[in-house]
Amino acid sequence: MTRWTLPPDRIPDAWFNVVPHLPAPPQPPLHPVTREPVGPDDLAPLFPMALIGQEVSAEPWIDVPGEVLDILRLWRPTPLQRAVRLEEALGTPARIYFKDESVSPAGSHKPNTAVPQAFYNAKEGIARLTTETGAGQWGTALAFACAQFDLDLQVYMVRASYEQKPYRRVAMETWGGAVVASPVGEPGHPGSLGAAISDAVRDCVGRDDTHYALGSVLNHVLLHQTVIGLEAREQLELAGERLPDVVIASCGGGSNLGGIAFPFVPDAGVRLLAVEPASCPTLTKGRFDYDFGDTAGLTPLMPMYTLGHDFVPPSIHAGGLRYHGDSPLVSALVRDGRMAAVAYPQGPVFDAAVQFARLEGRIPAPECAHAIRATIDEALAAKEAGEERVILFNYSGHGFLDLAAYDDHLNGRLPAEPE
Amino acid sequence: MTRWTLPPDRIPDAWFNVVPHLPAPPQPPLHPVTREPVGPDDLAPLFPMALIGQEVSAEPWIDVPGEVLDILRLWRPTPLQRAVRLEEALGTPARIYFKDESVSPAGSHKPNTAVPQAFYNAKEGIARLTTETGAGQWGTALAFACAQFDLDLQVYMVRASYEQKPYRRVAMETWGGAVVASPVGEPGHPGSLGAAISDAVRDCVGRDDTHYALGSVLNHVLLHQTVIGLEAREQLELAGERLPDVVIASCGGGSNLGGIAFPFVPDAGVRLLAVEPASCPTLTKGRFDYDFGDTAGLTPLMPMYTLGHDFVPPSIHAGGLRYHGDSPLVSALVRDGRMAAVAYPQGPVFDAAVQFARLEGRIPAPECAHAIRATIDEALAAKEAGEERVILFNYSGHGFLDLAAYDDHLNGRLPAEPE
Predict the structure, then answer these.
(1) What positions does the domain Tryptophan synthase beta chain-like PALP occupy (chains A, B) (predicted)?
(2) ipTM for this prediction
(3) What is the pLDDT of residues B199-228, one digit of tens each?
(4) In whole angstroms, what is the distance from residue B296 CA to residue A64 CA?
(5) 8 Å CB contact of B175 and A357
(6) For the CA atoms of chain A, what is the radius of gyration?
(7) Does the pLDDT of residue A355 top 90, yes or no?
(8) Which of A111, A361, A410 is closest, CB to CB, to B144?
(9) Under an 8 A CB cutoff, do A166 and B3 touch?
């Protein structure tokens, strides 16, 4: 047996909150002007109260509303798959499992939080959401979710992606979302995720009918993603495994990583590994400090690893990993030694992606390929050590909308990067 | 409950052969030159003996080799889903189920036959396959399958697609396939499926290490696809349904249609409906006659509905449905009244696709959208009649590589077509 499914009534009905399991209590976000801890009132112009409550909650479990489960059931539970052909090719004694989040409508893990975010906003009477998107994974997920709850959506898409990668824009429009290039009013500017966040927040503030939605970084976002790890845990048991030795995921803002890894934080023997691009090495080369989430300094200051909110990462194909900061929860786990981090340049990442595609049949998104690179290296280390390690990684999204990146890789057009 | 999965050990271990259930015995294909019935020796330069045997078999069931099951298990059994939100929006008493073939590595039903074709060729010592592809669905599926059995692959891709839709070419190359534009040596020619078949057959004939593979039309191809209908049958029972009232699928060469519909042919009360594009109305406006499968007249003459082997359909986004002929098995069922056919122009097809995407979250391939159009009309007819009909359709592939088509539709750029 190489694939484990669960029936649709076995979607976790509560999210796992990692906060009670952190080595140290989390530091609060600070108001961008007063530098005092932000309270619910500060966040209310942006988010519904239910999400603000989740953002600061210390409850170990938080119920998933039935209306959210009804939508998640369109594709969840997702399969857990064992990469037997990859294991054989590597000649490793490791057993490699991956959680396949690519089967969602938007093709990635992002709808796991887009759906509850749309739900809570609709429930509190909000009619319209604004958001930013880089390559478009988050924007497509939120467009899908807004269509489910009859919410209007305005997406600010990083201009470079808007112009060069029109397909995800079209997907957003197919689901009914409106998309404009960011920064607004600066036609020559290629844009950045930080600048697009500023645009989306500006559009939201002062409009009673409008809230803002973020696809990563924040505590409530990572909370919603824990269905991934919770399902994987149950499926690993079905596969006859007790616990994984290591859990691996790519890390941009931290949401697919938190989603699969957080439910294993209490298990001290399980190693957790974040994989980031060498060109945007937030966890491996950034500093832990309070910093803004966006370029213009409109968001609260968050305690996190950061390369500086004015850092502009070079253009790489893994657009979803080009973020100067990182989830405060992930940052705290790395700072306190509960989670490790590693960085890879694009070349070895795409080598791993092509090897995986030819052996396992699936073409991963460039973001996801980072996790595959680290998984292969972990499996080779297990071979070197002669150890039967159990590796779990998050197959966070497919690469059907990223094939131009593969074209560049296969034809030697990826720019050289320092190793 | 709105989604039914099956464990990986419940993939059908035998294919369903519709031949014993046809109203009349099938007519044989004829040799292109002698016009005598073709024998195994005539086909041996193109296909392995195992597939030739399946092409002419009258056995009711044919075993699926274990090596094939091992690969199919990477994504099969596929889910059966109920489109509850679509039902509610239509206000229909019909219950709408769809079989989700989009979860395969190539994103469509095509790997169901690509895998056994690659397997049988590898088993008989063939080192290299040639094939044609239009938009690229079949080529990607065969590239994936050849990677599993270490076969080289040469794909002749219709030039218009090769130049305008590079993403599926890149997917083929990622899996290790070689791709050239067809017709070879005629740089200004946009190409056609029939011409690409001629190119692929020419490359194969006379090379002992090389065989040819076809992604639709032939009996053995449709045989391999019957895992779809067999699984759906079992899943419908899990859903508490006895049998569907109607089974609907789009039809180009007939493989996704045959795959879901053939296992229901013996059930006289189940209606079967083929959906084709109005611009290539093979079943609805063609004639039943012997005709060539390709433009150059290199293939055997097949008894089928045809628009003439020199018919060049207008350029529509559902490239997979642009074929002058049709499966002889499907053609026989339509001629003898066991299956009905309907044709739609692009506009209403894309209206249905967008409606489905917004309600059910999935963006279908343009080919698949034809089945959705007919499903919606069937559900509205059930509403009109006040009948609780059970509708099963084949969600044959996702549209992540077809978003340019949606862009055209959403922005009013689809050319006008006669209704």
Answers:
(1) 73-393
(2) 0.92
(3) 999 999 889 999 999 999 999 999 999 999
(4) 61
(5) yes
(6) 20
(7) yes
(8) A361
(9) no
**How big is the A-B interface in CB pairs under 8 Å?**
125
What average pLDDT does range B360-375 have in this prediction?
A: 97
**Residues B11/B76, Cβ–Cβ less than 8 Å:** yes
Q: Which residue of B has its CA nearest to A408?
A: B170
CB contact under 8 A, A403 and B171: yes
**With contacts defined as CB-CB under 8 Å, which chain B residues touch A5?**
5, 7-8
- For chain B, domains (ranges, CATH) are 68-108+221-410 (3.40.50.1100), 111-214 (3.40.50.1100)
Residues with Cβ within 8 Å of residue B133, at least 6 apart in sequence: B139, B140, B142, B155, B156, B157, B158, B161, B168, B172, B196, B215
Cα Rg of chain B (Å, integer): 20
Q: Which of residues 390-419 of A touch B (CB under 8 A)?
A: 398, 400-401, 403-404, 406-407, 410
Scanning A80-218, the segments in alpha helix (DSSP H) are 84-90, 111-123, 137-148, 159-164, 166-174, 193-204
Question: Is this structure's pTM higher than 0.80?
Answer: yes
In angstroms, the separation between the Cα of residue A199 and the nearest Cα of chain B is 25
Question: Which chain A residues have a beta carbon less than 8 Å from that of B74?
Answer: 2-3, 81, 360-362
Q: Are B96 and B86 in contact (CB under 8 A)?
A: yes
pLDDT digits (tens, 9 = 90+) for A304-333: 999 999 888 877 778 788 889 999 999 999
For B314, residues 6+ apart whose C-beta sits below 8 A from its C-beta are B279, B280, B415
Q: In this model, does residue B73 exceed pLDDT 60?
A: yes
Q: How far apart are CA A309 and CA A264, in angstroms?
A: 30
| Residue A347: band (very low, low, confident or very high) from pLDDT cuts 50, 70, 90 | very high
- Report which of residues A5 and A226 the model is more confident about: A226
Q: In 3D, which of A255, A168, A258 has the Cα closest to residue A213? A: A255
Residues of chain B positioned with their CB less than 8 A from the CB of A98: none
